[in-house]
Amino acid sequence: MAIRNIREMGDKVLNKMSREITEVDKKINVLIEDMLDTLYEANGVGLAAPQVGVLKRLVVIDVSEEGDNPIILINPVIVETSGEQTGEEACLSIPGKVGTVTRPDTVKVKAFNRNMEEFTMEGTGLLARAFCHEIDHLDGILYVERTTGELRSSFAEEEE
Ligand code: NI
User: Fold this and answer.
1) Quick one: which of 35, 63, 105, 115 could link to 83 by a disulfide (CB 3.0–4.6 Å)?
2) 37 in a domain, yes or no?
């Protein structure tokens, strides 16, 4: 297990399409563990493989307060959305910034787990937002392409 370097906006890897995973081999398992370590170290909510320089369709998310409920999504696809939420969004690849993004309020995803078994999962609120944000990363899209208005500094909030 190891902390990986998080790529920042301007790095071209963040604008590329990621490829589907066909088999969860040792390398993918190590990548999953490293991504979880990296996510928790950075106090993030979600991390997509391209953010650590790997163009594979893999996402890790943890929206729990305690950081003890990781969600691992392999080849995730959004199958259903409803409602709307408008709120602040941030990204570990764009440190120190936040922007306002409108997303669906309920999102159902279909994905595969580490045993390559297909499952579906529904999220609302922050989890729905995380599903959309992280799956966007797999298509080379950063939230700054979806913001309403300017990016703002997040430092004022961090000082509270
Ligand atoms: Ni992000």
Assistant:
1) 105
2) yes
Kindly give, in sequence order, each residue whose CB lies less than 8 Å from that of residue 107, ignoring residues fewer than 6 positions away: 78, 80, 81, 122, 123, 124, 127, 128, 131, 132
Which CATH number belongs to the domain containing residue 52 in this structure?
3.90.45.10
Name the catalytic one among 134, 158, 159, 160. 134
Tokens representing residue 79 in the block: 């199958």
Domain that holds residue 58: 12-159
Q: Is 134 a catalytic residue?
A: yes
Q: Output the CA 20–ligand 1 centroid distance in Å.
A: 19
What is the per-residue pLDDT across 6-33, written as a single tens digit (0 to 9) for each?
Answer: 999 999 999 999 999 999 999 999 999 9
**Does 121 map to a domain?**
yes
pLDDT of residue 160: 44
This prediction's pTM: 0.95
